[in-house]
């Protein structure tokens, strides 16, 4: 069961899914936050419930391997903590757990309205949402530093499946306001998972150049994973930059 990062619908990962297909029966929620039954709220309880309901209804009777990138990793941890009977293991792709003084700072930033300084929320509000066609979408993102290291096939998939038709041509499939609200409601209590042994095995795969890891620290993540931490080349978005290596590490992490 794969859970996507904020702002990137599941079809963006099509190449990664294809690389995993021989070893996993991949299932994924298309877009978290867009189903009115599971609204975005502080701490993401509704989004975690969306994942749990999907697990129960679409993933069969066997406990699932939960693989999550960024947002998806945190939701996977929350789901596994709530219903460990549904989960075989969790594999986090650059989802470092914020705890201790950093968690208190995150809570304070949310209370004071300063959370945009500690997340991509501010940039999200300014993000372009309209293009005349898919080719224009791809050209736009290819020119951005954040996307320059992406695998070309994944960038094409994001351009095609991360946008939908509208009256002006193409618009983002993942609504900008929802992406913004997800960033503004980051959980600040995930450190609780480090206080006692986690009920299922957890592995963390991190990008060497991840700014998010430097900001969050890894103390709580080391406790939750019991040291099962693996490093790979790339940034916070390494699954888009190096899908073959990401697939290899996911297979290697499977227990």
Automatic annotation (TrEMBL):
GO terms for molecular function: hydrolase activity. The keyword Hydrolase applies. Keywords: Hydrolase. Residues 4-248 form the AB hydrolase-1 domain. Coiled coil: none annotated. Pfam families: Abhydrolase_6 (PF12697). SUPFAM superfamilies: alpha/beta-Hydrolases (SSF53474). InterPro entries: AB_hydrolase_1 (IPR000073), AB_hydrolase_fold (IPR029058). PANTHER family: ALPHA/BETA-HYDROLASES SUPERFAMILY PROTEIN. This is Alpha/beta hydrolase family protein.
């Amino acid at each position: 069961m794969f859970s996507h990062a904020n702002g990137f619908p599941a079809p963006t990962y099509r190449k990664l899914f294809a690389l995993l297909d021989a070893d996993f029966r991949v299932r994924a929620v298309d877009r978290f936050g867009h189903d009115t039954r599971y609204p975005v709220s502080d701490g993401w309880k509704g989004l975690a419930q969306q994942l749990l309901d999907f697990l129960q209804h679409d993933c069969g009777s066997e406990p699932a391997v939960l693989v999550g990138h960024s947002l998806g990793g945190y939701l996977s941890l929350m789901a596994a903590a709530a219903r460990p009977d549904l989960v075989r293991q969790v594999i986090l792709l650059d989802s470092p757990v914020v705890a201790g003084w950093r968690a208190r700072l995150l809570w304070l930033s949310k209370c004071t309205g300063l959370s945009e300084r500690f997340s991509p929320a501010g940039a999200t509000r300014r993000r372009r949402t309209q293009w005349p066609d898919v080719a224009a979408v791809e050209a736009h993102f290819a020119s951005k530093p954040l996307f320059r290291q992406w695998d070309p096939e994944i960038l094409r998939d994001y351009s095609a499946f991360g946008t939908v038709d509208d009256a002006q041509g193409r618009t983002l499939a993942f609504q900008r306001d929802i992406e913004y609200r997800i960033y503004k409601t980051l959980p600040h209590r995930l450190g609780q998972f480090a206080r006692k042994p986690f009920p299922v095995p957890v592995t963390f795969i991190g990008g060497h150049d991840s700014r998010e890891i430097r900001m969050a620290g890894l103390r709580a993540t080391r406790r939750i994973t019991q040291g099962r931490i693996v490093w790979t080349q790339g940034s916070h978005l390494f699954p888009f930059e190096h899908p073959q290596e990401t697939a290899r590490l996911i297979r290697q992490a499977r227990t």
